[in-house]
Design a protein that fits this description.
binds adenosine-5'-diphosphate, Thymidylate kinase, Thymidylate_kin-like_dom, 255 residues, binds thymidine-5'-diphosphate, nucleotide-binding, 50% helix, dTMP kinase activity, globular, EC 2.7.4.9, alpha/beta, disordered N terminus
Amino acid sequence: MSGRWPIQQQSNLLPNPALKLRTILRSMTPTHSAPSASAQRGLFITFEGIDGAGKSSHIQGLHDAFVAAGRTVVTTREPGGTPLAEKLRTLFLHEPMDALTESLLVFAGRRDHLQQVIEPALVRGDVVLCDRFTDATFAYQGSGRGFDLGVLSNLERMVQSDPSLGADFVRQPDLTVWFDLPTEVAAERLAHARVPDRFESQPQAFFAQVAAGYAARAAAQPGRFARIDSNQPRPDVWQAVRAAVARRGWLAVEA
Ligand SMILES: Nc1ncnc2c1ncn2[C@@H]1O[C@H](COP(=O)(O)OP(=O)(O)O)[C@@H](O)[C@H]1O
Ligand SMILES: Cc1cn([C@H]2C[C@H](O)[C@@H](COP(=O)(O)OP(=O)(O)O)O2)c(=O)[nH]c1=O
């Protein structure tokens, strides 16, 4: 990932956990823009794809584009996004565990993240840009690790519910930008990028299953997903990302 998440990028370089936590909390502080003329609806946009698909720089690009358009933006990530969830993230990425434990940990962190960060930001009318969310759990724990999709659906309903928003309300992203890239290209990019964590060190066959998991989620909810062909030069990927957001009327089409 890019430097947007110093805690992760420098996890082998910064041994002081307090320093790392301060860094991540600073990066989660909303970026305020000039006040807009009227209150706007909050937007929840998530970014997904196999490891190495190239999400990071485009999340930063969208952040900048929304701020330039007068929005207040909260950039966050999963696993993580709150002090509690960041602690769970460290365990999740580095300790061996079975797929049920993985699922319970990410959903526990997600509950805290929704309550502390995402829902309050959406109530304020902010734009929330979240690097991974529940589609990753279906893709990695469900499709990749073979964990029961029915159990994941139950957890999704329980964790993402909010009775104050309606008895049947289950929070879902307004848009999921899915960076789709052949596994061999992602592996090649990652080989030059960073020290792999527990997931990034999985074989390509694992990522083929994860990719199939994303494809299944996208097929089930086509209106929510924008598939981006990430196997092209970075400026072209950016144009596709920006166009997907502009098509929904949330940003102007770039000249
Ligand atoms: N379009 C692209 N073409 C070539 N390399 C890219 C492209 N996009 C990203 N990369 C490189 O691939 C690696 C993984 O990108 P990154 O954004 O960290 O992926 P992700 O956040 O999806 O895991 C990085 O080294 C990055 O510089
Ligand atoms: C949110 C989430 C992430 N993951 C995995 C995907 C990534 O391999 C890892 C997050 O690590 P991270 O290094 O942030 O990956 P990336 O830069 O590609 O976003 O956790 C799951 O397995 N399940 C989940 O629910």
